[in-house]
Amino acid sequence: MSTIESAGSPVSRVRKIMPSRNIADEPNAHAPMGVEGAAGRGPEKMNDEGLQPAIEIENFDAFYGDYQALHRVTLRIPERRVTAFIGPSGCGKSTLLRWINRMNDVVATARAEGKLRVGDIDVLSRSTNVVDLRRNVGIVFQKPTPFPKSIYDNVAYGPRLHFKINAAELDNLVEWSLKKAALWDEVKNRLHQSAHGLSGGQQQRLCIARAIAVGPKILLMDEPCSALDPASTARVEDLIFELREQFTIVIVTHNMHQAARVSDRTAFFYQGHIVEEGVTDQVFTKPKQKQTEDYVTGKFG
Ligand SMILES: Nc1ncnc2c1ncn2[C@@H]1O[C@H](COP(=O)(O)OP(=O)(O)OP(=O)(O)O)[C@@H](O)[C@H]1O
Ligand SMILES: [Mg+2]
Questions:
Q1: Which atom in ligand 1 lies closest to the alpha carbon of residue 95?
Q2: CA–centroid distance, residue 7 to ligand 2 (Å)
Q3: Please, what are the domains in the chain?
Q4: Which ligand is nearest to the CA of 269?
Q5: Residue pLDDT, tens place only, 224-277
Q6: pLDDT tens by residue, 31-71
Q7: Ligand 1 pocket member 107 (CB < 6 A)
């Protein structure tokens, strides 16, 4: 099993994932990304041999008061792959995503039972340090949520909170994160202007930069493109393709084409159950369950 803390402190992890050379010198560092979508481009989808689970879920039940939103969910989410959660509205996709980094702590009626592990962390345990968990598990929401701060300060927020790093290192980390999020070229001359002056698609990429700046291992994305236009959506999809080489990504999406394009594995949720989970191509082209077939072919949902 992968061990979150065995990878060293978050600072060392951040430094480990940051390139030692100046990435501005890389030939493609500033190449504009296409807007035609990730389909057919990017690295080949990878097979799953020898993968460690980044997230292990077993017999997981989730409730809001008396209402049971998830029933005995069992799922292993492999590291450094993209896993898509699909299913009709209200089937529990966001509930599961929000439990993975304990976002549901703020919902008074929410409770859960069963096994939910992120690396060595027992997510549901009372003794789990939620700040540590969230440093390892970043989340990006449907609606971009930049802080009312400058572009720079949005990205620097997490590193300032979690790490002792000097100004030069922070500059470097902010630049690295913005480059990783494919936003640097568009903002490098306005880093100290308000993030609210960015377009929706830029704000979403800023939120991704902010999430990766603390060196998480896992990135959760809850319908990250549903508020974006097609060009911005394509850029975020390109980004997901690139980021999956370093991060474990879980994306909730209502867009079947998007799930098919960006994910390696897909889990289909229906009425609080996982009906089917497997390699994305198989779930879409040879689903084992009739309900899955009906959903992916647009018969309901
Ligand atoms: N804070 C809450 N309090 C009470 N019930 C909730 C709460 N959040 C979600 N639920 C209920 O739990 C069920 C699962 O909701 P969830 O948000 O996980 O669905 P979803 O699959 O993400 O749907 P969508 O695709 O519409 O975002 C729904 O019936 C929903 O009404
Ligand atoms: Mg949802």
A1: 18
A2: 31
A3: 5-51+79-94+129-296 (3.40.50.300)
A4: 1
A5: 998 888 988 998 899 898 888 889 999 999 999 999 999 999 999 999 999 999
A6: 222 222 333 334 466 656 667 899 999 999 999 999 999 99
A7: yes
Q: Which residue's C-alpha comes closest to atom 31 of ligand 1?
A: 90
Please tell me if the CB atom of residue 89 comes closer than 6 angstroms to any atom of ligand 1. Answer: yes
Q: Tell me the pTM.
A: 0.85
What string of H, E and C letters represents the secondary structure of the chain?
Answer: CCCCHHHCCHHHHHHHHCCCCCHHHCCCCCCCCCCCCCCCCCCCCCCCCCCCEEEEEEEEEEEECCEEEEEEEEEEEECCCEEEEECCCCCCHHHHHHHHCCHHHHCCCEEEEEEEEECCEECCCCCCCHHHHHHHEEEECCCCCCCCCEHHHHHHHHHHHHCCCCHHHHHHHHHHHHHHCCCHHHHCCCCCCEHHHCCHHHHHHHHHHHHHCCCCCEEEEECCCCCCCHHHHHHHHHHHHHHCCCCEEEEECCCHHHHHHHCCEEEEEECCEEEEEEEHHHHHHCCCCHHHHHHHCCCCC
Interval between CA 297 and ligand 2 midpoint (Å): 20
